[in-house]
Amino acid sequence: MTSASTLRIGSIFLVTGLFCSACATSNSYPDISPQNLGFEAHTSVEGIFTRLDAEMHISAVRPDCGLDYLGSVKVKAEPAQLGLKEGQLHYLVITLQLETFGQSDQGATRAAMITPQKGHRYKLWAQYSRTEYQLKLFEAGPEGDLIPIAHEPYACEPR
Q1: Residue 56: how many CB atoms within 10 A of its CB?
Q2: In the Cβ-directed half-sphere of 33, how many Cα atoms lie within 13 Å?
Q3: Contact 58, 71 (CB under 8 A)
Q4: C-alpha to C-alpha distance for 20 and 47, rounded to whole angstroms
Q5: Does residue 24 surpass a pLDDT of 70?
Q6: Contacts for 127-131 with beta carbons within 8 Å, 24 or more apart?
Q7: H helix count then E strand count, the chain
Q8: Rounded to the nearest 5 degrees, what angle is found at the Cα of 159, between the Cα atoms of 136 and 115?
Q9: Where are the beta strands (DSSP E) in 19-154?
Q10: What are the residues whose beta carbons fall under 8 Å from the beta carbon of 159, sequence distance 6 or more?
């Protein structure tokens, strides 16, 4: 492993740790218009005593690559709809956890970065089972067609 990749991995853990400490006093995300991001979570594990807990924590990324925690959104049975400020780089941390008969598994956490563009809509889709976690991000321009877009866990160059 090169020193650059070690530094990058270390940076990811540092950012995630700082982010999670800010999340300890989780507040709900403010209602921002237009609602340009849909977030839905699914599980392949079924059962009347099985529940999927899904939460997205949202931070604005400052020009110096620091994070300003903005709040969180919990997803229940229906997909969440929220607004992200257009033109602002956002760091999204998604946590999913299965609970069966009151026992929770370890869960999983993934992250994505996004800068919403004016007139575009976005969809964040998460699929979770006990062995696999997929996170997909889609963008729809004014034409309306959803296309998959790449998402970086955390990549920021200070400006």
Answers
A1: 23
A2: 0
A3: yes
A4: 30
A5: no
A6: 127/41, 127/42, 127/43, 127/44, 128/41, 128/42, 128/43, 128/44, 128/52, 128/54, 128/96, 128/98, 129/43, 129/44, 129/45, 130/45, 130/98, 130/105
A7: 1, 10
A8: 25
A9: 37-43, 50-61, 67-75, 80-82, 90-100, 103-104, 108-114, 121-128, 133-140, 146-149
A10: 63, 64
pLDDT band at 143 (very low <50, low <70, confident <90, very high): confident
Task: Give yes or no for residue 78 having a pLDDT over 50.
Answer: yes
Do 113 and 91 form a contact (C-beta atoms < 8 A)? yes
Residue 28 gets which letter from DSSP?
B
Q: What is the pLDDT of residues 111-132, one digit of tens each?
A: 889 999 999 999 988 887 767 7
Q: Which residue do the tokens 């090169």 mark?
A: 2
